[in-house]
TrEMBL record:
It comes from the Bacteria. InterPro entries: aa-tRNA-synth_I_CS, aa-tRNA-synth_Ic, Rossmann-like_a/b/a_fold, S4_RNA-bd, S4_RNA-bd_sf, Tyr-tRNA-ligase, Tyr-tRNA-ligase_bac-type, Tyr-tRNA-ligase_bac_2. Catalyzes the attachment of tyrosine to tRNA(Tyr) in a two-step reaction: tyrosine is first activated by ATP to form Tyr-AMP and then transferred to the acceptor end of tRNA(Tyr). Residues 360-421 form the RNA-binding S4 domain. Its EC number is 6.1.1.1. A motif ('KMSKS' region) lies at residues 252-256. It is found in: Cytoplasm. SMART domains: S4 (SM00363). This is Tyrosine--tRNA ligase.
């Protein structure tokens, strides 16, 4: 914060006006909120909420909504969960909202076409795993879990019409996705306008003080502020977090890009994937994924700048993330497994695969064992020197294997013990 002035106030450099001196606790909470965030809107209102909460002893209500569009989440999704946990540890009430109703609509955020709505059966199945996975980051004993069907279904057709009357089509068309699609002549269905309205209404129903989301959710988050004002509530603040780049360091983490780490992946796989990221990307991951303090991260970064091996810092990050979703013992074992592999060793536990058809071509074997998606990809891997059998590099794409048991390795992390009959 800014320097204290003689009037017993802090100087606000934005407005030039004096503002009340903030307590150390509020300053700390503000620093925790700001860490790694893209935008905090409006920050002045958030400070007022923090001051009010400290004075009254009443925790603030902090909301995160996720639509259960897939059964699993990856660590890119945990960026906002980490922020929730940080605010939870300050004593505030976090609300993990599962959008079982809004999933029926489908959110078009940032897409050129609408996301296909899920069936109620799919939503129920996915929702069952969501909170369990989120609880690996949040403290479940201090987390309020809600489903937006609680208030959206009772709203009914009359309530939906009344809600729709609180926002104009012109304002709705300011949303980038709608604007761009309209300009391009791409169809926009009327039901798509309901999604941001319903997400905003969630904030009314929950009386939220702060809503978190990715940068691609900004329009929907602002809708919550607008509707709360329409319903006579104090409007929530919004906090957007950056989208996490995946393993490639280019595109945002996504299963479709295959650059992700699933939070239910085996510990050894998770550890090795974290170590595969670039030294540059590592520091952003530290800010967004680590629970270390900013001072600790700054010290690590300074040590690397002065000549320390960046791999040591990356190993520490990999162990922290792996321990969070597994255990400290599993993280230690994953580190040892990685060391063994780097020395050419075989992991203690690898898949056992039984195949028939000996003699079998190496390309067909790799495909059948699940080590390559196709024989053509298998041949490409062989050309690149990425295939080993019992530790020996395979260079002959025409190789046929007779009956027997072999340890087959593809790249650094894929292994299988194949028994061929």
């Amino acid at each position: 914060m800014n320097e204290q002035v003689e009037s017993g106030k802090d100087a606000d450099l934005t407005t030039g006006q004096a503002v009340p001196v903030l307590s150390d606790r509020v300053r700390h909470a503000l620093a925790v909120t700001r860490r790694g965030c893209e935008e905090l809107i409006p920050e002045a209102d958030w400070i007022k909420k923090l001051v009010k909460s400290e004075a009254s002893g009443q925790p603030l209500r902090i909301k995160l909504g996720l639509d259960p569009t897939a059964p699993d989440i990856h660590i890119g999704h945990t960026v906002v969960l980490n922020k929730m946990r940080q605010l939870q540890d300050l004593g505030h009430q976090v609300i993990f909202l599962i959008g079982d109703f809004t999933s029926l609509i489908g959110d078009p955020s940032g897409r050129n076409s609408t996301r296909p709505p899920l069936t109620p059966e799919q939503i129920k199945l996915n929702a069952e795993t969501y909170y369990k996975q989120a609880s690996l980051v949040l403290d479940p004993a201090r987390t309020e879990i809600r489903y937006n069907s609680e208030w959206c279904l009772p709203l009914g057709s009359m309530g939906m019409i009344q809600l729709s009357a609180k926002y104009t089509v012109a304002r709705m068309m300011e949303r980038n996705d709608f604007h761009d699609r309209f300009k391009a002549g791409t169809p926009i269905s009327v039901h798509e306008f309901l999604y941001p309205l319903m997400q905003g209404y969630d904030s009314v129903a929950l009386k939220s003080d702060l809503e978190l989301g990715g940068t691609d959710q900004k329009f929907n988050l602002l809708m919550g502020r607008h509707l709360q004002q329409e319903y006579g509530q104090e409007p929530q603040c919004i906090l957007t977090m950056p989208l996490l780049e995946g393993l490639d360091g280019v595109d945002k983490m996504s299963k479709s890009k295959n650059n992700y780490i699933g939070i239910t992946e085996p510990a050894n796989t998770m550890f090795a994937k974290v170590l595969s990221i670039s030294d540059t990307l590592m520091w952003k991951w530290y800010t967004l994924l680590s629970f270390r303090s900013e001072a600790e991260i700054a010290a690590l970064k300074a040590a690397v700048a002065q000549g320390a091996n960046p791999k040591d810092a990356k190993v520490a990050l990999a162990k922290e993330i792996t321990a969070r979703f597994h255990s400290a013992a599993a993280a230690d074992a994953a580190e040892q497994d990685f060391i063994n592999r780097s020395k050419g060793g075989v992991p203690d536990e690898i898949p056992e695969v039984a195949l028939s058809g000996a003699p079998l071509g190496i390309g067909a074997l790799l495909k059948s064992a699940g080590l390559a998606p196709s024989t053509s990809e298998a041949n490409r891997l062989i050309d690149g020197g990425g295939v080993r059998i019992d530790g020996a590099v395979v260079s002959d794409k025409g190789l046929k294997l007779d009956a027997g048991t072999f340890v087959v390795q593809v790249g650094k992390r894929k292994f299988a013990r194949v028994t061929l009959a």
